[in-house]
Automatic annotation (TrEMBL):
Coiled coil: none
Residue numbers of N6-(pyridoxal phosphate)lysine PTMs: 183
Keywords, comma-separated and alphabetical: Pyridoxal phosphate
Keyword Isomerase carried by entry: no
Record's protein name: dTDP-4-amino-4,6-dideoxygalactose transaminase
Biological source species: Chitinophaga jiangningensis
Amino acid sequence: MMIPIVKPYIPPKEKLFPELENILYSGYIAEGEKVYEFEKLFGAYVNNPFSLSLNSGTAALHIALIMAGVKPGDEVISTVLTAEPTNVAIKLVGGKVVWADVDPSTGLLDPVSVRSKITDKTKAIILVHYAGMVADLNEFTKISEEFNIPIIEDAAHALGAKYKGQNIGGVSEYTIFSLQAIKHMTTVDGGFLCLKSQEAFDRARKLRWFGLDKTRPRLENDITEAGYKYHMNNVNATIGIVQMQYIEQIVGSYIENGKYFDKALKNIPGIELLKYYDDTSPSYWLYTMKVDNRDAFIKHMAAHNISASELHLRNDRHSLFKESATELPAFNEFYKKMVHIPCGWWLSAEDREMIVSAINSGW
Ligand SMILES: Cc1ncc(COP(=O)(O)O)c(C=O)c1O
């Protein structure tokens, strides 16, 4: 059996099934009390009371871009190193994707490159905390203030990652999380948009449900802005509420494994470990590093029943983004060597040791 690179954590049957049965037969499976209870628990975890649940991380990105005021023709600075939804969402609002280059020691957006891409048309900067590593928030917060451009943190991979000792989710104007099937925590599908004020929260809440204000009776409503059908329902929220009992343990095991690899893989010829920025600590959704002869490395690991891969296609390869084509020399160098190995809750102590000794044996 191959050790997979991602795997959903589902709570024990005896904890989850009675709760699911209750809600399924309760007569109220739409958005209701379970959703609001889950939002409180999740909001406490990410230290942000303005945390709005949605049915996906993509929905959260879409609403964030609308709220940032991105209109057709406006520019959004982003990275090619991400899953496609980050950048597809920009196209949903008619924005132009502007690629900035990465810091070769992290693979995350380079503040110097981002600065050089800012124009009068820039309406937002999307920072992807790729694979659970946190972008250089110290620098990006300065850029955001200096140019008055909001930051959207795409933290789909980074639940439980920290900035200045606190779980991320309350730093920038917008932070999005994904609870999709393979993330640190899953509700099968789901997402969160974390905001900075009651006003923003109220607008986002309407945007998630046709533009209707769910806190008022239906017959007293007046839609002023078209919204979507992006809400979470009581069934997914019930899974989320049960997951919250395990979140410290599950996210904690990713982090513990990541720290183990940080130590055990130091000083191995052909491997370069990544740097973590000041005031940040990763939640290691994947363990990411740079290796020489990547293809040989991946084959070598597969021969030891360990999945290793680059996982994502650089997003500028898609025709959808052809108008954004630009040179990204630092990224090119980084991407040639980048590889992920498994780091999640499913690794036993023996698995971790086996992974390290497979790497130590050379490829
Ligand atoms: C970096 C990143 N952003 C956004 C998303 C979108 O999340 P979702 O699948 O919940 O829509 C994903 C995951 O698919 C992702 O990996």
